[in-house]
């Protein structure tokens, strides 16, 4: 199934990276508990993590085109390891510092998608990018499962102690990912020429200046639109989808601080179910269906049907049964859209600008995530259920853009 073993190596790095990120999810409320409006502090941390990618993602994506994917994998893995070390004191200040520092090197996924596209034949592109999504979902299962297993096995009852042990596990796993990243073989076809030049600081300064100039993002995307017609609409679709799936970042605060009152163990079990089902559905969809359909039309219908499903999260009340019913439908609808957009976007890239395009796209996603975090943070002050109306409205925009 995989003719190039580098693909499996990349999947392993993705898997560990997501596990490291998701393992700490169930214990994050402990970092802000006791402070007024804790959901706002969680939202602020998320906005720091995602907003800083507005600068870091285009920079890392462009550098990966010039110097290869491997150095960016290494930098991102080291950044995650050091950021996780900051979490060892369970305090709100360390949580915010972690979110900021981790976001600076989190251009990984622009490079991941570029690397997968580098080594994927055209007929396997949707499958390989779809499997990336399934791997991410699997990581979301295993992360909370490890957290729950660790808490149960060690019989940890004190919430702060639970958070401390879970963070130590995350630090260990992120250290393992550093090793995997240093062992990865290059995927970029121009790697040899780039490496003979070495790192030119003038190139770095130019790339950094472009990344810091937020106003130039759309101008650069319009330029790429002229080279690859249809790209800008896909990026805008991705932006709207990112704003809709901002509920992933809001979910822990909603289920722990709202009427459901779920603790770390409950949250772990929920994400195990969510991720496990998502893996199975995504693997089947992208392995056997995605490359045989009209992807644009499917994006429209998945978004149109998924919008009321997303809004329904705000109506579950205290019923965990309904929560599980809604998340089941979720996995069959808009959870499948991401890979379709990425596959269509990958087809509009070349070896010379793939990292830059995915980097610009991730920067726009960072901007969208930052914006949607501010919106759902403000709405949550009024009512913890209101953000889901916003998320559903953003998904309606995805359906509208998909009709073009």
TrEMBL record:
<dbReference type="InterPro" id="IPR005829">
    <property type="entry name" value="Sugar_transporter_CS"/>
</dbReference>
<feature type="transmembrane region" description="Helical">
    <location>
        <begin position="384"/>
        <end position="402"/>
    </location>
</feature>
<feature type="transmembrane region" description="Helical">
    <location>
        <begin position="7"/>
        <end position="28"/>
    </location>
</feature>
<dbReference type="GO" id="GO:0022857">
    <property type="term" value="F:transmembrane transporter activity"/>
</dbReference>
<keyword id="KW-0472">Membrane</keyword>
<comment type="function">
    <text>Resistance to tetracycline by an active tetracycline efflux. This is an energy-dependent process that decreases the accumulation of the antibiotic in whole cells. This protein functions as a metal-tetracycline/H(+) antiporter.</text>
</comment>
<feature type="transmembrane region" description="Helical">
    <location>
        <begin position="298"/>
        <end position="316"/>
    </location>
</feature>
<dbReference type="Pfam" id="PF07690">
    <property type="entry name" value="MFS_1"/>
</dbReference>
<feature type="transmembrane region" description="Helical">
    <location>
        <begin position="231"/>
        <end position="255"/>
    </location>
</feature>
<comment type="similarity">
    <text>Belongs to the major facilitator superfamily. TCR/Tet family.</text>
</comment>
<feature type="domain" description="Major facilitator superfamily (MFS) profile">
    <location>
        <begin position="6"/>
        <end position="404"/>
    </location>
</feature>
<feature type="transmembrane region" description="Helical">
    <location>
        <begin position="322"/>
        <end position="345"/>
    </location>
</feature>
<dbReference type="InterPro" id="IPR036259">
    <property type="entry name" value="MFS_trans_sf"/>
</dbReference>
<feature type="transmembrane region" description="Helical">
    <location>
        <begin position="267"/>
        <end position="286"/>
    </location>
</feature>
<feature type="transmembrane region" description="Helical">
    <location>
        <begin position="134"/>
        <end position="153"/>
    </location>
</feature>
<keyword id="KW-0812">Transmembrane</keyword>
<protein>
    <submittedName>
        <fullName>Major facilitator superfamily MFS_1</fullName>
    </submittedName>
</protein>
<feature type="transmembrane region" description="Helical">
    <location>
        <begin position="357"/>
        <end position="378"/>
    </location>
</feature>
<dbReference type="InterPro" id="IPR020846">
    <property type="entry name" value="MFS_dom"/>
</dbReference>
<dbReference type="InterPro" id="IPR011701">
    <property type="entry name" value="MFS"/>
</dbReference>
<dbReference type="InterPro" id="IPR001958">
    <property type="entry name" value="Tet-R_TetA/multi-R_MdtG-like"/>
</dbReference>
<keyword id="KW-1133">Transmembrane helix</keyword>
<keyword id="KW-0813">Transport</keyword>
<feature type="transmembrane region" description="Helical">
    <location>
        <begin position="165"/>
        <end position="184"/>
    </location>
</feature>
<feature type="transmembrane region" description="Helical">
    <location>
        <begin position="40"/>
        <end position="60"/>
    </location>
</feature>
<dbReference type="GO" id="GO:0016020">
    <property type="term" value="C:membrane"/>
</dbReference>
